[in-house]
Amino acid sequence: MDYEAFFTGELDSLRQEGRYRIFAELERRRGAFPRATHHIEGDLRDVTVWCSNDYLGMGQHPKVLGAMHETLDRCGAGAGGTRNISGTTHQHAQLEAELADLHGKEAALLFTSGYVSNWAALSTLAARLPDCVVLSDAGNHASMIEGIRHSRAECQVFAHNDWRDLDRRLTAIGPDRAKLVAFESVYSMDGDIAPIAEILDVCEAHGAMSYIDEVHAVGLYGPRGGGVAEREGLMDRITVIEGTLGKAYGVMGGYIAGSNAVCDFVRSFASGFIFTTALPPALAAGATASIRHLKDSNAEREAHRDRVATVRARLKAAGIPMLDNPSHIIPVMVGDPRHCKQISDWLLEHHAIYVQPINYPTVPRGTERLRITPSPVHSDGDIDRLVEALSECWSRCALSRVPAAA
Ligand code: PMP
Hints:
The chain is built from 15 helices and 14 strands. It is of the alpha/beta class. The chain binds 4'-deoxy-4'-aminopyridoxal-5'-phosphate. Residues 46-390 form the Aminotransferase class I/classII large domain.
C-alpha cells in the first residue's frame, strides 16, 4: 500500500470539505489576556482572542502564577513518576483534598486532563460493574463516548437532555443490572444545560449510578465555583462529578470527585490513572490556588456574566444568529463549513480577532459555528469591534440575519 498517498488523499478530502484544521500559533502574554501575539509566517501580530476556554482569565492570575513559580522553584519541574511510583507529591494530595471539599465529596482523584479523567473513569466503572449498562446522553463529549466504548459494556444513547427517554430505557432494562448514567451539565458546543434534578430523580428511582461532566461549569457556576450542581444544591445526589482544571481554573488536569469507595476503586483499577506520569507539582499548586481563589471570590463570575450578557445583547441587536442558551457559551451559527472558515480567516486578517471555526465532527454538519466565549477582561471596545466585524462578515457572505423582534 502507498501509505503516504493514503494519508494525503484523506487530508485532501478534509480540505475540500472545508474542515481541515489549521491551528493559529499564539503566544499568550502575562497580564495581557485577552490579547495574544499571533505568529504567522514569520510575522508577529497582536490579536484579541474570543474563543478561549480560560473563561475567567485565571491562567494569568497573579495568585496562580505565584503558586506555580514558588512550587517550580522549590520542587522542580516534573513529578518524577506515576502516582503509584514516587509521583504523588504533597501538592497532588492538597489539590485532591481541595477538590473533594469543592464538591462536598469524601474524595477526589486527579488525572492528567479532563479527557483522561472521563476516559479512564468511565471505561473502568462500566467494564467492572457487573453486567453494567451505560446510559449516555446523545450530546456527550468524545472523551466520555470513547471511555464507554472502551469498556465494551452495553451502551444505550438517550435523547439529549431527555429524562423521559432515560426513564423509559431504565424501566425497560429492569432492576437487576448495574446502570451508569453519564451526562454533562453545560454542553460545550450548544451551551445548553442539563435538567440535572430530573435526571437524578430518574437515576434514584431506578437505582442507577450518576456521572456528570461539569468541565464547562466548574469555577463558573455555584457560589464557590462547584458547578451547576452546586448552584442547584444537587452535588450530594450525584455519584461522580468530573471536572477539568484546564478551563475556568486556567491550568491543566482533570479529576473525579465522589465517595471514598468510588475514587479508591478508580484509583486502583483505571489504567489511565495508574500507568502515566503524575501532573507536575507546580501545575497542581497553580490549580489549588485557582480553586481556592474562586471559592472565595465571586468578582470574576459576576464580571463574566455581565460580559456574556453584553455580547449577547449586542449580537442580537445586529441580527447575528445565535443559539439561545442559559450559559456563558455563545454559539454564533454560520451553518456552512466554508463560510465558517472564511469568516474566521477574515476576522483574523482584517480585524485581528481570533475565533476558531467549529466544524463537523465536533458539531453536526449544517450547524457549523463560531463559538464565542467572552471573559471578564473583554472590554466594551473589544465587544464593539467583535460585533462590527461579524456584522461586516455577515454582509460579505450574504448570510441571513435574525429580524429584530417587533
Ligand atoms: N469534557 C468536555 C465536555 C469537554 O468539552 C472537554 C474538552 N473540551 C473535556 C471533557 C476534556 O477536558 P480537558 O480539556 O481537560 O482534557
